[in-house]
Design brief:
Shape: elongated
Low-confidence stretches: 1-11
Order of helices and strands: HEHEEEHEEHEEEEEHEEHEHHEH
Mean pLDDT: 88
Distance between the termini: 37 Å
Number of helices: 9
Structural class: alpha/beta
Largest sheet: 6 strands, mixed
Length: 320
C-alpha cells in the first residue's frame, strides 16, 4: 500500500475533466474508493464539508474522494458543486498543498449558486498517508465506530483512538465520524417479512433473516447499529427471539401485532421476569403508520420507523 504520492504533471491535470465514478453518499464507501486508489498507486484527495452558512443539502463531515485521473465519488452538496470541487481537488493533487474553498453565500464564485440559498466551505486534503483510512475501514469491518481527524495547519490526517466523536470542528481539528452500516435482522416466516427484507435491501441496509432461532440473536450479531424486527403471527414462536433481542443491545426492537396482542406480550414477558423498562424498549404495534395492513405499506412503515430510530440514536450519542 502506497503512503506517499508524487505530483502529476501540469499538462496532464489541465486536460482532465472530472467524472463521477459512481453515485454514493456513504462516507465509508468513499473511503474505500480512496484507499483503493492509493493501492493502485494513484494520488487522491479527500474533500470534506466543514462549514455551512444557511441551508445545505448535506451535514458537516460529508465527503468526496477524487483520484488523479479525474474519477470521483461522494457528495458535499445536492450535486451542484461536486464537479467544481473535483477540479479544485485535482489542482490540490497537482500542487501538493491543501486548501479551503467556499461556494454559495460568502463565496467569490458568483456563477456557482446553491439552490438552498446557503453557503458551504470545503477542506481539500491531498492524501499523504493511507494508514488512517485503513484504520477506519478495519474498525467499520469489525462493526465498530471510528473517526478521522484533520488538522488544516499541518495538512495532516489521523484516526484517533476515541471514536465517540461528532463530525465538526474540535478546536483547530475537524473530526469526521463513521458508523457501521445499519443491520436489520428480520424474523418471522411470513409474506410481511419477505417484503420488508426486500425493501430493506433496496434501502441499502445490511439484512439478515430468520425464523425462530434465538441463538442467532447474540451480542456479536446484534450490536448498537442493529434493528431487530419481529414479524410473527404467533406469540409463542416470537417469544424466544424477542427475549434474546431484549438481552442484547439493538437500537430498535419492533414487533408485529395489535395493541391487544402487545398487552398479551407484555403480560407474558412480565411473567418471565422482564422489567417494565426492558419491555418498554419494544415498539409495538410496529411502524409509524397506524393500521398499515398490506405488506408493502407495513414494510414502508417499519423501515421509516427504523430510520427515525437510527437518527435518534445518533443524536443521543452526540449529546451523551
Amino acid at each position: 500500500m502506497l503512503q506517499q504520492f508524487s505530483l502529476i504533471e501540469q499538462s496532464d491535470e489541465d486536460s482532465l475533466t472530472p467524472e463521477q465514478a459512481f453515485s454514493t453518499d456513504d462516507n465509508v464507501e468513499i473511503l474505500r474508493f480512496a484507499a483503493k486508489a492509493a493501492d493502485d498507486g494513484m494520488a487522491v484527495a479527500l474533500v470534506t464539508l466543514v462549514d455551512i452558512r444557511g441551508g445545505s443539502a448535506r451535514e458537516p463531515g460529508a465527503q468526496m474522494a477524487v483520484r488523479q485521473d479525474g474519477l470521483y465519488c461522494g457528495f458535499v452538496s445536492g450535486g451542484c458543486v461536486e464537479a467544481a470541487a473535483a477540479h479544485e481537488a485535482l489542482d490540490v493533487i497537482r500542487c501538493g498543498h491543501d486548501r479551503t474553498v467556499s461556494y454559495g453565500v460568502g463565496s467569490p464564485w458568483f456563477d456557482i449558486v446553491l439552490p438552498c440559498g446557503g453557503g458551504i466551505t470545503l477542506s481539500i486534503h491531498k492524501l499523504r498517508c493511507v494508514r488512517p483510512l485503513l484504520k477506519v475501514l478495519t474498525a467499520i469491518d469489525r462493526r465498530q465506530a471510528a473517526a478521522l481527524r484533520y488538522h488544516p495547519p499541518s495538512q495532516t490526517l489521523q484516526s484517533p483512538d476515541s471514536a465517540a466523536l461528532e463530525s465538526g470542528w474540535n478546536g483547530a481539528f475537524f473530526d469526521i465520524s463513521y458508523r457501521p452500516k445499519t443491520r436489520v435482522m428480520i424474523y418471522g416466516r411470513s409474506w410481511e417479512a419477505e417484503v420488508t427484507a426486500s425493501l430493506a435491501q433496496a434501502a441499502g441496509y445490511e439484512v439478515a433473516t430468520g425464523d425462530s432461532t434465538p441463538h442467532s440473536v447474540t451480542a456479536t450479531a446484534v450490536d448498537t447499529s442493529t434493528a431487530v424486527i419481529l414479524l410473527y403471527h404467533d406469540l409463542n414462536r416470537e417469544l424466544p427471539v424477542l427475549q434474546a433481542a431484549l438481552a442484547a443491545k439493538p437500537f430498535y426492537i419492533g414487533a408485529l401485532g395489535s395493541r391487544r396482542t402487545h398487552q398479551n406480550r407484555v403480560q407474558r414477558l412480565t411473567e418471565l421476569g422482564w422489567h417494565a423498562s426492558d419491555i418498554a424498549r419494544i415498539k409495538a404495534p410496529i411502524g409509524i403508520f397506524p393500521k398499515a395492513r398490506d405488506a408493502h405499506s407495513l414494510a414502508l412503515s417499519i423501515l421509516a420507523d427504523v430510520a427515525a430510530a437510527r437518527l435518534s440514536s445518533a443524536d443521543q450519542g452526540r449529546s451523551g
